Amino acid sequence: MRHIYLDYNATTPVHPEVLEVFLAFYRQQFGNPSSIHWAGRRVKGAVEKAREKVALLVNCEPVEVVFTSCGTEADNMAIKGVAAALGDRGNHIITTRAEHPAVVNSCLALEKQGYEITWLAVDNDGMPDLDELEAAITARTILISLMFANHETGVLLPVHEIGEIAARRRIYFHCDAVQAVGKVPVDFKELNIGLLALSGHKLYAPKGVGALVVRKGVKVAPLIHGGPQERNRRAGTENVAGIVALGKACELAIDAMTAESRRIAALRDRLEEGLLSTIPDVRVNGHKERRLPNTTNLSFPGAEADSLLLNLDLQGIAASSGSACSSGTLKASAVLAAMGVEPACARGAVRFSLGRETTAEEIDYVLQVMPEIVARLRVKQ
Ligand code: PLP
Fold first, then answer.
1. Whole-number pLDDT of residue 329
2. Whose CA is closest to atom 14 on ligand 1?
3. Which of 102, 241, 305, 377 could be stapled to 72 by a disulfide with Cβ–Cβ 3.0 to 4.6 Å?
4. Residue 278: other Cβ atoms inside 10 A
5. Each residue of 81-135: pLDDT tens digit?
6. 111: Cα within 13 Å, side-chain hemisphere
7. Where do the H-state alpha helices sit in the chain?
8. What is the pTM of this model?
9. Are 298 and 283 in contact (CB under 8 A)?
10. Separation of CA 145 and ligand 1 centre (Å)
């Protein structure tokens, strides 16, 4: 059976050149970057080179990059780290329920400890209201946490405007850019973002590595205590091969992003338009223009997402019904619920996310099998 992978927002295959760098690193290097002898110094040099490459991709200073184990850790560090560092100044955080669980559950954990969380509404397009954001700010507000691009819908939030509000009101802005980095330009210097999270496995690097970019001067307490690694911000011997691989993936993303985005957006549109024109009553969830180039989230009301995914899987097609962390449960997507998508549509929502290896032929195969699957499942309801 042929396998068609359309779940790149869940994870990406490691790029062959990244894998080469990763394996070569382990073949040739083993030192601990904290060691002062030659073995350590060589590895330390490789880590610092990787830091420069990450910094180049998101346009920040290398010293602002703190390597973590994943995007979830970066989000936790930003939210809990700022809460711990600024706890004496205030206890109020602003976010939305359309954020990834790494953000939502970090905020819920803080809420249990007595922090006050404002859960801003998002509209049917997945956008927060900037007047409501501004109105929610109080003298006790220490953090605004709003994402760059939504993992389920691909919707791009107005991060420029959010950053301006945060800067004007002198409040830290944490931006979960895990889905954006490598897919669309992310300019840390230009945007007023204080803390920016990214993750290796979303941009063709291996799992087990991510980063939090922390603007110079921003106070964030460490989550993990121990040695002085990462300038005392994240203790623990570094995942050196993962870091080097992430550096390579960032370098490749800089070269490929513009052309790849155009190619992938054309394939995404071909898929979306094809499904909309051949299957009755299909809805696109989220803002149609302000979106990642690779993502489409479509509702097929009258069919259940789990059955759709199962039937697609039987045809070798991998898609998703939301964030990978919540699939496998029958609960409708929290993101779509936050957007006010009707339950029948939310229950029948499927996310297709395309990537480097997606071809027109694969898209045409999905277009060929999907109408029959939807029709069959709708009859069964
Ligand atoms: N934030 C967003 C928007 C995501 O999509 C994900 C993963 O799906 C994460 C955070 C968590 O990243 P990681 O899987 O590296 O922990």
1. 52
2. 71
3. 102
4. 13
5. 999 999 899 999 999 999 999 999 999 999 999 999 999 999 999 999 999 999 9
6. 12
7. 16-28, 38-58, 71-86, 101-112, 130-136, 159-168, 229-232, 240-278, 305-314, 334-338, 343-347, 360-380
8. 0.97
9. yes
10. 14
Closest alpha carbon to 203 in 372, 12, 54, 369: 12
Query: How far apart are the CA of 102 and the centre of ligand 1, in A?
Result: 7
Residue 268 and residue 77: Cα distance in Å, rounded?
Answer: 34
One-letter amino acid at 342 equals E
Select which of 70, 175, 250, 325 is catalytic. 325
For ligand 1, say whether the CB of 72 is within 6 Å of any of its atoms: yes
Among 380, 319, 315, 321, residue whose Cα is nearest residue 349: 321
Helices 38-58 & 240-278, crossing angle to 10 degrees? Answer: 30
CA atoms within 13 A on the CB side of 375: 9
DSSP for 239-254? -HHHHHHHHHHHHHHH
Residue type for position 74: A
Is 102 close to ligand 1, i.e. is its CB under 6 Å away? yes
Task: Look at residue 323 in the predicted model and tell me its pLDDT.
Answer: 43
Ligand 1 touching residue 304 (CB < 6 A): no
Specify the pairing of strand 141-145 against strand 116-120: unpaired
Interacting residues of 378 by C-beta distance below 8 A, sequence separation 6+:
300, 302, 303
Instruction: Judge if the beta carbon of residue 176 lies within 6 A of ligand 1.
Output: yes
And the tokens for 150? 């939504």
CA-nearest of 184, 151, 230 to 58 is 184
Quote the pLDDT of residue 163: 98
Q: Is 63 helix (H, G, I), strand (E, B) or coil?
A: helix
In contact, 179 and 154? CB cutoff 8 Å: yes
CA of 98 to the centre of ligand 1 (A): 13
Q: Are 95 and 120 in contact (CB under 8 A)?
A: yes
**Quick one: pLDDT at residue 379?**
84
| 325 is annotated as an active-site residue | yes
DSSP string, 11-38: --PPPHHHHHHHHHHHHH----TT--SH
**CA distances in angstroms from 363 to 51, 280, 284, 317, listed in the order given:** 36, 19, 17, 10
Atom 13 of ligand 1 has which residue's CA nearest to it?
Answer: 71
